[in-house]
Amino acid sequence: MTPILIVLVLIGIGVAVAIWATRRKSEAPRIGPQEGDTAWNDPVTPGEPARPGPRADTFADAPPVRDLPRDPQP
Predict the structure, then answer these.
(1) What tens digit of pLDDT does each residue of 8-29 get?
(2) Rounded to whole angstroms, what are the CA distances from 41 to 14, 16, 32, 65, 68?
(3) Could you give the CA distance from residue 12 to residue 60 in angstroms, rounded to a whole number?
């Protein structure tokens, strides 16, 4: 009798989990922004490009870097 009760309890738990997992969620209003487009890359003003153009190389006139000492090879 005990194994039958254990099986029935396990089946009941399985049915309860399946019902809980597949139940319909209530159509409550969402909290937070409703719009998915955040416009993070839109131009700030209509005449301004979305992406900046190429910039001058900051280090073009810098002196060359000397070779740094390397770790000794084994």
Answers:
(1) 999 999 999 999 888 876 676 6
(2) 48, 47, 21, 36, 41
(3) 74
Which helix (DSSP H) or strand (DSSP E) does residue 22 occupy?
Answer: helix 2-22
In terms of residues, how long is the chain? 74
Contact 52, 59 (CB under 8 A): no
DSSP summary character for residue 49: -
Q: Tens of pLDDT along 31-67? A: 666 666 666 666 667 666 656 667 777 777 888 777 7
Nearest CA among 50, 52, 33, 54 for reference residue 42: 50
With 0.70 as the threshold, say if the pTM is over it: no
Q: Please give the Cα distance from 38 to 10 (Å, whole number).
A: 47
Q: Which two tokens stand for residue 10?
A: 């396990």
The position carrying tokens 């809980």 is 20
